[in-house]
């Protein structure tokens, strides 16, 4: 499971011109699920993202996590994160989870975030989505467990 996180001042996701998720300060999480992922993988990645210190403290050092700054998560499924791009000019998605497993683990990941009382918005799994954001920094990290 891969999570591309971007520290944002604000972000939103639209489906067919309608805003389905929107946050102010926080993290945009683009989530990719692979065939070998499980609930345990989702739990590890969720814990890592929630504890990842990417927000500035009083000395302007990245020492605070999302909960410490009162931020929110916008979680958007993105199967292209698991693409194999090592050879050729076309990505291979053979390691990607099936639609059923991907949706199950995406929804499980979101439920884990919600259980922590961290504000969370989402996209729509499998939909054609338009994501807009103002990256703060810019700060972007690829996390994988």
Keywords:
D-tyrosyl-trna(Tyr) Deacylase, Chain: A, 145 residues, single chain, two-stranded antiparallel sheet, 6-stranded mixed beta sheet, 2 helices
Spans of at least 5 consecutive residues whose pLDDT stays below 50 are none
CATH class: Alpha Beta
* Overall number of domains: 1
Proportion of strand residues: 35-45%
Look up the CATH topology.
Answer: D-tyrosyl-trna(Tyr) Deacylase, Chain: A
Radius of gyration: 15 Å
Output the structural class: alpha/beta
Mean pLDDT: 97
In sequence order, what are the helices and strands, one letter per element? EEEHEEEHEE
Give the number of DSSP strands.
8
Tally of helical runs: 2
**Can you identify the CATH superfamily?**
D-tyrosyl-tRNA(Tyr) deacylase
Q: Span from first to last CA?
A: 6 Å
Q: State the shape.
A: globular
The level of helicity is 10-25%
- CATH second-level architecture: 3-Layer(bba) Sandwich
Largest sheet: 6 strands, mixed
Notes on the protein architecture:
With 145 residues, the chain is an alpha/beta fold. The protein has one domain: D-tyrosyl-trna(Tyr) Deacylase, Chain: A, CATH 3.50.80.10. It is 21% helix and 39% strand. It contains 2 helices and 8 strands; from the N terminus they run E-E-E-H-E-E-E-H-E-E. The chain has helices at 39-51, 99-115; strands spanning 2-15, 18-23, 26-32, 55-56, 62-64, 72-77, 120-122, 129-144. The strands form 2 sheets. Strands 1, 2, 3, 6, 7 and 8 form a 6-stranded mixed sheet that branches. Strands 4-5 form a two-stranded antiparallel ribbon. Strand 4 and strand 5 form a beta hairpin. The termini are close together. The model has no long low-confidence stretch (mean pLDDT 97).
């Amino acid at each position: 499971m891969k999570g591309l996180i971007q520290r944002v001042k604000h972000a939103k996701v639209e489906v067919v011109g309608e805003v389905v998720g929107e946050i102010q300060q926080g993290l945009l999480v683009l989530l990719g699920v692979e065939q070998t992922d499980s609930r345990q993988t989702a739990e590890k990645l969720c814990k890592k993202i929630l504890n990842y210190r990417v927000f500035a403290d009083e000395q302007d050092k990245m020492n605070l996590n999302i909960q410490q700054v009162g931020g929110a998560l916008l979680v958007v499924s993105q199967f292209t994160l698991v693409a194999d791009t090592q050879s050729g000019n076309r990505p291979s998605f053979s390691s990607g989870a099936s639609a059923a497993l991907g949706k199950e683990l995406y929804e499980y990941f979101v439920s884990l975030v919600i259980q922590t009382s961290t504000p969370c918005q989402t996209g729509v799994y499998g939909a054609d989505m338009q994501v807009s954001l103002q990256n703060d920094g810019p700060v972007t990290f690829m996390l994988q467990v």
